[in-house]
Amino acid sequence: MSxxxxxxxxxxxxxxxxxxxxxAISTNRRRVEHGLLSVGLxxxxxxxxxxxxxxxxxxxxxxxxxxxxxxxxxxxSLCWVLPPVGNARTAIQLLEAIELAxxxxxxxxxxxxxxxxxxxxxxxxxxxxxxxxFYLGSDVLRLYTLGDFATxxxxxxxxxxxxxxxxxxLYDAVGDFDKGFxxxxxxxxxxxxxxxxxxxxxxxxxILTAKSKLDIQxxxxxxxxxxxxxEDGFWFQFGMQFEKDIRSLLKRxxxxxxxxxxxxxxxxxxxxxxxxxxxxxxxxxxxxLMSYTLEDVIRVNRLGKHYFSEKTPDGPMGILWxxxxxxxxYRAKILEKSNLLQRGKKDGEVHDTGASA
Amino acid sequence: xxxxxxxxxxxxxxxxxxPNPLYTPQPAPERAPERVPEKVPAxxxxxxxxxxxxxxxxxxxxxxxVARRRTNKKERRS
Lengths: 357, 78
Prior knowledge:
The complex is a heterodimer of chains A (357) and B (78).
Chain A: H1 7-14, H2 19-28, E1 39-45, H3 53-59, H4 62-65, E2 78-85, H5 88-102, E3 112-119, H6 124-137, E4 140-142, E5 169-171, E6 183-188, E7 191-195, E8 204-210, H7 213-231, H8 236-252, H9 275-303, H10 307-310, H11 319-346
Antiparallel strand pairs in A: 1-2, 1-3, 3-8, 5-8, 6-7
Chain B: E1 2-4, E2 12-14, E3 17-19, H1 49-77
């Protein structure tokens, strides 16, 4: 991600509109919470983007801030790259502060598409599961067309290694990478081996179409679990269990073949040589997932809003319920263990084992 | 909105977003209107009252006069 300004410059501009939030952001901007990954954000503006004009010009003008990136949604007037922060909570606060400063909505706004960027290129099979978990766990279910995923990097005039196709998940195109966030490595005497930097030099896995605060939290959670699984992080075990659980969830709903579709495209996708073929195959899987989910929505609405809150789950409850429960379960597990570690640290049981932390 | 057209039929409107029913904010439970009591008990007055207040005022005035006289005496001696 390229951005030619500092977070401090942006915070200075946001301070008059949201002083308390800006204070919280500046305190926690590098803080990694519960060993989860850092979060990067891009705002794709599908209207004229006039609400951001003032801030962008104060930061250095559209030419320096926006046009430095050639990448954006095909139909977007602008793509504003925000500096990465250490945790999902601070990322949400940053967007809230921008909302207050611009007096316009970013969350749940049809004219705004939030791209959530997580460090490390996940393997395609994990990227697929990340996209599925994001879609089913969202509080706003979208009915996509292939055009919704079109970006300026979908396909170049000549075949390029940066052809990303029209997909929900995107890999980076080798830009700037901020690795200055703590990484919880494999447990050492039951405690995370904390590194001051991420253990990979480059690479990102992005979800293109987040809309809500819950989306950002869910993407951060699932991307962290899979990243720790791939890179031998502290949450390796949870990542492995999560993969198993999500695959069995899909199997219960007869969707086990869905992750096999080309959900993401990279220069090393041999099966996906022709971009359009991959796009079509991905969209077929996406449509199947969307129609199955829509049926579940209709079923839940028919049963009544209070169905799930009153009935105890003793039988099949539907894919939306299953995904919600799964995400809640893993969030609770991580919080519980992380809080235990924190308590141990306060009592002097846990010592700082960081290599350089 | 996405529109699907069929010959000789009205266009069908398909929404682009559907709220997840598990996350839809539930309406606040309807509260029964608060009951107004038929008879309101008389308010009990715990204030010192006029008579007690009057004697308190006289006591304060006297103590001020005494204090004033004492200071005058001290000033004359010095």
